[in-house]
Amino acid sequence: MTPRSILVVTDFSELGGHALARAALLGAEHRAALQLVYLSAPGEVPPPDVAVRLSHHALQLRQRHQIAVQAVSRVDCTVADMARAAATHDLVVWGTAPQRGLRAWWGTHPALQLLRACQRPVVVVRNAADQTYQSLLVAVDFSQASHRLVELGLALLPRARVELFHAISTANEGKLRYAEVSERAIQIYREQCRRHAQDRMFTLTDSYDARRNRLSSSIGRGDPARQVLVAQQNAGADLILVGKHPASPWVDWLFESVAQRILREARTDVLVAPHGFQAASRGTAVKRLATDLPVRRVKAGAPRPPSHPNPAALWGGA
Predict the structure, then answer these.
(1) Per-residue pLDDT tens digits of the chain, which is 318 residues long
(2) Sheet harboring 269-274: ordered strands across?
(3) Which residues pair with 135 in a beta bridge?
(4) Which of 174, 212, 226, 250 lies 20 to 30 Å (CA to CA) from residue 185?
(5) Is residue 40 within 8 Å of residue 77, measured between CB atoms?
């Protein structure tokens, strides 16, 4: 999915300025048109010169990057307003000041609220945009959505280094210990999980032979959100790409998703893509894949299935 139109959300804060600069770099790289909108914080009165300031930013970006930039004169005060505006764009670049107090811990990030209302990827900007993204970390879980997630990252950042990362969950190990399974059996199960993850990762990365020179992979073990953040620091990635399963506000509040935790704790930019995301420039959504992962291409013979079954499925009832 190559973006042809980008919605830029700003509140004129420092992060809002970073979002404008980041969106301009993405727009120049893909020759995409930008639309600038202002979003006021809950309970905050918008400044009286919103339209003038947006127009000024649009003129600056247009002249500096030679791209089409439009400023929206109206003032959008809710995420629902943002969702209606995002419906006509391929990508959203979000730059608002961080939430404070209890809202930051118990409330849902407004970018995730936007995802529920429209199926558009959202880049939440945290850092200054001095240059185009140089490296990307893609969190994969080997589900049907993983392939589209990787395709999105490769299309959005055609010249960046890309690392695919998977964290092996240790949740079932606790169940095994509770059932008083021997330590030897747990070690065998752990090794099976590692070999299964390596096999699935090889199948996924092997689908992109033409881009192997800038594509790598790694596997961690433990809490997925925490491991993604550790992997990002180790790789020095300046953007994290993570998928978001569809969920109601109550489910997100009761069971904090991996995407929510990464958005709350990451110190770098985060691209959140809803599963089943669509591009506004396409008439219909891309058909979902029939298999969990793309078929591995080989010179001869049938596609090679993973050599090890998923141990988590075998021990799921433990």
Answers:
(1) 789 999 999 989 999 999 999 999 999 999 999 999 998 877 777 888 888 999 999 999 999 999 999 998 777 667 778 888 888 899 999 998 876 654 555 557 788 888 877 889 999 999 999 999 999 999 999 888 888 899 999 999 989 999 999 999 887 777 777 777 788 888 888 899 899 999 999 888 887 765 666 789 999 998 999 999 999 999 999 999 999 876 666 566 666 788 889 998 999 999 999 887 776 654 433 333 233 334 334 344 444 555 555 665 555 444
(2) 69-71, 33-38, 5-10, 91-95, 122-124, 269-274, 239-244, 135-139, 161-168, 215-221
(3) 161
(4) 226
(5) yes
Pairing label, strands 91-95, 69-71: unpaired
> Cα(33)–Cα(159) distance, rounded to whole angstroms?
20
Distances in Å between the Cα of 43 and the Cα atoms of 1, 53, 165, 199 are 36, 21, 39, 51
Q: What's the 3-state SS for 115-177?
A: HHHCCCCEEECCCCCCCCCCEEEEECCCCCHHHHHHHHHHHHCCCCEEEEEEEECCHHHHHHH
DSSP strands (E only) in 222-318: 239-244, 269-274
24 to 51, 67, 139, 199: CA distances (angstroms): 19, 8, 25, 39
**Scanning the structure block, which residue is given the tokens 């894949």?**
289
> How far is the C-alpha of 162 from the C-alpha of 167, rounded, in Å?
17
C-alpha to C-alpha distance for 20 and 313, rounded to whole angstroms: 45
Spatial separation of the C-alpha atoms in residues 157 and 247, rounded to whole Å: 28
Q: Dihedral, CA atoms, 144, 154, 138, 8, nearest 10 degrees?
A: -100
Query: Using CA atoms, how far apart are residues 268 and 123, in angstroms rounded to an integer?
Result: 11
Q: What is the DSSP letter of 79?
A: H
Name the one residue in this structure whose structure tokens are 């793309």: 294
Residue at 257: amino acid letter: S
